[in-house]
Design a protein that fits this description.
Elements lengths: L1 H13 L8 H34 L2 H12 L3 H16 L4 H18 L4 H12 L3
Helix pairs in contact: 2-5, 3-5, 4-5, 5-6
Length: 130
């Protein structure tokens, strides 16, 4: 909960000179931006729903079992995961990809022996490329 608040505070501090300083300026900024927010909202709701569905279907466990059955080197498994993430990032943005695939990919990366921090950073770096 605190991360989005911190990001918002730092963004406001950094962009203060670019932000409107009157009520009419804020109204104009919001009216220009509202069309993009509706698309983003639908995208995030779909990402949350897909994340919940994938978790309920135990896709993380199945994905890990498939990767374990490959008996491949960890680098090959990481490449397979990168391909899956790249396919997912196509229709979604980085936030939606993280929401939908984060837990599954994290479980898969942990199954090949990566530490939790390395697994989280590896997923973040791959999903942030667009």
């Amino acid at each position: 909960m605190y991360i989005p608040i911190l990001i918002s505070v730092f963004t406001i501090i950094e962009g203060w000179k670019y932000l409107p300083h009157s009520l009419s300026g804020w109204y104009e900024l919001c009216s220009k931006s509202i069309g993009r927010f509706s698309e983003l909202g639908v995208l995030l709701v779909c990402a949350f729903m897909s994340s919940r569905l994938l978790t309920k279907l135990n896709l993380g466990t199945e994905f890990s079992a498939i990767l374990d059955s490959l008996n491949a080197a960890p680098i090959v498994i990481m490449l397979v995961i990168c391909i899956v993430i790249t396919l997912m990032v196509g229709p979604f943005n980085a936030t939606a990809t993280t929401t939908a695939m984060g837990a599954i990919v994290y479980t898969a990366l942990r199954s090949i022996g990566l530490s939790p921090v390395v697994a989280a950073v590896a997923f973040y770096l791959r999903s942030d490329k667009k």
